[in-house]
Amino acid sequence: MDAMPPADLFAVTTLEELARHYDPPRELVLKKVIPRLEAKAMAFIAASPFAVLATVGPEGVHATPRGDAPGFIHSLDDRTLALPDRRGNNRLDALRDIIANPAVALLFLVPGAGEALRVNGMARITADPALRARFAEREKLPATVVLVEVREAYMQCAKAVMRARLWGERARPEAVPSMGELIAAHTGGMVEPAAYDREAPQRLIDTMY
Fold first, then answer.
1. For position 118, what pLDDT does the model report?
2. Distance CA 24, CA 39 (A)
3. pLDDT for 195-208, tens place per residue?
4. What's the rounded Cα separation, in Å, for the pair 136 and 131?
5. Looking at the domain assignment, is residue 161 inside a domain?
6. Which domain holds residue 68?
7. How many domains does the chain have?
8. Per-residue pLDDT tens for 164-187?
């Protein structure tokens, strides 16, 4: 019989223990969460060629990559995203999960931009012919379209992408709103965009680790 691994004397198993290891979040971090998409968030999504869709169902948790030309996920309005299900391996992990549990999360990335946009919501699957036709590529339609009712949206700072050097020296696309613009829009003007962006590079370096 294999020996049991030794107990982890430093295991963190309660919220109280967890809180002892971290400083509390700043007010700005808590208030940047918005319940719907606004113009800056929609512009970020329109520039994004890649997203990760996270789902959970009876067989566990799945995170699936989704990619196409920038803006392949459409903002139908400020509360609804439409994601075409392009041809894949037909495992349908994410779609099976959505049928069992509609709660989903999306992480949007834009090459050259350090920030990521996180969206949480409730999803459903449709085979609406008109909506499928909207996403036609090379005369081929997606089998279905995932509609996400947005419940939360917020920006993730650039530290993870910067640590990974994910984009190398690639420049930020001009059409992508800056972090200062996004934070200002999401918090009702708690920051001045130009000043925030001007101070951000050094602030990120100072707090990278």
1. 98
2. 30
3. 999 999 999 999 99
4. 9
5. yes
6. 25-206
7. 1
8. 999 998 999 998 999 999 999 999
Is residue 15, in this structure, part of any structural domain at all?
no
Q: Is the pLDDT of residue 1 over 70?
A: no
pTM for this predicted structure: 0.92
C-alpha–C-alpha distance, residues 176 and 181, integer Å? 10
Distance CA 173, CA 112 (A): 7
Q: Which residues contact 61 (CB under 8 A, 6 or more apart)?
A: 54, 55
CATH number at residue 160: 2.30.110.10
DSSP letters for 143-208? S-EEEEEEEEEEEEPSHHHHHHTTTTTPPPPTTSPPHHHHHHHHHTSSS-HHHHHHHHHHHHHHT-
- Give the SS3 label for residue 46: helix
For residue 19, is it within any domain? no
Tokens standing for 133? 């036709």
Residue 70 lies in a domain: yes
Residue type, 156: Q
